[in-house]
Each structure stands twice: as C-alpha cells, then as structure tokens.
C-alpha cells in the first residue's frame, strides 16, 4: 500500500502562500522547495506541494486549471486530536487571511473549514476515538440506547 501522500495545489503567489501557511505553523521541506514549488509538511507522511500556476500547468498541459475561488475540485480534510485543536487551527487560518467555511457538529464528530488564499477548501476534523473504533453509525446507536 501507499506510504505517503503528496497533494499538488496550484497557487497564484507562491511567496504569499508560504507566508499564509507559515503563520498557521506549518513548515516547508527545503529539499523540495524552489522558485516553482514549496513542499508544505502536513504530517510525517503528508505533504502539500504548493505549485506556481504555470508550473502546475506543465503537469496537465491539456487541461484547464480551475479557479478554486469559484469552482470546487477537492476538499482537503485533515484530522485533529481534539475539538479545541480544530478550532485552534481554523482560527490561525482566519487570522492569516483565510475565509471562513462551515462548522459541523455531530457530537461524536466535529469539523470546521476555511478557504486559503487561492480558494482551496480545507476541513479540519475531529472524531471521538470510540466512534472511530466502532464506526459512526454503531457509535450513534450505542449513544441513543444509553
């Protein structure tokens, strides 16, 4: 199976994107960062490659790159250890210039979202470990039976 994930995102201003995500506390792997790309470390095995739009285009020469401020192509969902961590990460994003997204609270699962400088949707989500273990539907049924 796969060992790592690299998500490639087109960005209009690479320096502004680095500054934005740096304010949120993310770091960059300089080994894979240059004037065209920045490797943002999201976890031990998760990397978001922020790519200048013209460089991104070189990977998909026959396709149009979406404008994520008007069209959704993907939602990037990252896990958090607690509800408080969800709120903390999203607060940092908003303070750094993000646009607020939706908040979802299902009791056993809590998420909040934001849109980065280029309009890419990011969701930060926490799920009660017991719900992860048994599955959301079984967990909800157990909670209702109590």
In brief:
The chain is an alpha/beta fold.
Walk me through the structure:
There is one protein chain. The chain has 5 helices and 8 strands. With 146 residues, the chain is of the alpha/beta class. The protein folds into 2 domains: 1-63, 2,3-Dihydroxybiphenyl 1,2-Dioxygenase, domain 1 (Roll), CATH 3.10.180.10; 73-146, Roll (2,3-Dihydroxybiphenyl 1,2-Dioxygenase, domain 1). The strands form 2 sheets. It has a 4-stranded mixed β-sheet with strand order 1-4-3-2. A 4-stranded mixed β-sheet has the order 5-8-7-6. The longest helix is centred in the middle third of the chain and has 13 residues, at 83-95. Residues 3-127 form the VOC domain. This is VOC domain-containing protein.
Name its key features.
single chain; 146 residues; alpha/beta; 2,3-Dihydroxybiphenyl 1,2-Dioxygenase, domain 1; 4-stranded mixed sheet; 5 helices
């Amino acid at each position: 199976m796969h060992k790592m994930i690299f998500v490639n995102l087109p960005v209009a201003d690479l320096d502004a994107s680095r500054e934005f995500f740096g304010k949120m506390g993310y770091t960059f792997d300089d080994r894979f960062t240059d004037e065209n790309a920045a490797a943002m470390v999201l976890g031990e095995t998760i990397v978001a490659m922020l790519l200048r739009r013209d460089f991104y285009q070189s990977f998909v020469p026959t396709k149009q790159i979406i404008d994520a401020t008007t069209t959704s192509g993907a939602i990037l969902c990252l896990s958090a250890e607690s509800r408080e961590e969800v709120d903390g990460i999203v607060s940092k994003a908003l303070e750094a210039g993000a646009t607020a997204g939706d908040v979802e609270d299902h009791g056993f699962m809590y998420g909040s979202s934001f849109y980065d400088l280029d309009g890419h949707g990011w969701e930060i989500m926490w799920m009660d470990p017991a719900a992860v273990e048994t599955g959301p539907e079984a967990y909800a049924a157990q909670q209702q039976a109590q």
